[in-house]
Amino acid sequence: MPDGAAGLTAPILLRESAGGVVTLTLNRPSARNGLSMTLLEALGGALRDIAADPAARCVVIAAEGPVFCAGHDLKEITAHLADADGGHAFFAEAMARCAAVMQAIPALPQPVIAAVGGMATAAGCQLAAACDLVVAADTARFCTPGLDIGLFCSTPAVTLSRSVGHKAAMEMLLTAEPVGAEEARRIGLVNRVVPAAALRAEAAALAGRIASRSAHAVQLGKRTFHRQAGLPLAEAYELAAAAMVENLLAEDAAEGIGAFLAKRAPEWRHR
Fold first, then answer.
1. Which parts of the chain span the membrane according to its record (predicted)?
2. pTM to 2 decimals?
């Protein structure tokens, strides 16, 4: 879907599929890949399509240009200050649409990997944190700088606080200071740090490894992981035990166990 004059020749969200891996690339480099309403709509639509695609096994979210994502499009937000209500209705819609996308990522059946090269700021940091895994270039930085412009990054704090410890999250939120890739890995925001030139290849290799597994087991596991995370210990075990039973009864589990015992490669049926 195009976005502005540049969008006449290039869509703002690129999509390609290979070997069960779907790569979504934010394509607003001149706007620092800001999350305009149009880009949020495109992301939400792409995620809905992928959720219903049985051929999709894993998703990578990447970006064109030196910035992964600068968060909400501040020019778009500023333009609505002149609305009759001072921007209230637009701001509420923008926050709701962004929240829907951020919730769609963990709810997606397929695992999602963020490939972050460069800065991930505010809602851009939120986008990375919402993903199941993050591969970062050694040049990547993560920041929630809302207080620099009089805004506390309350919505980015939701995913950030679920990815790192509360103290680390609050330090990022209160100081607005950028966190480098290695520090982001230390606090749990990033899984892997690689040279910038190897970012796309590393993310693709990781996604390919996941895509080569039983889709049934992976999707059941992701769903169970997110559901148990907010439960008390006993309820979490009850949910996880039921998921294990369901998994053990699946065709792929019988195939995987049989292949292991027979010392051969499994042939997944994804059910």
1. none
2. 0.94
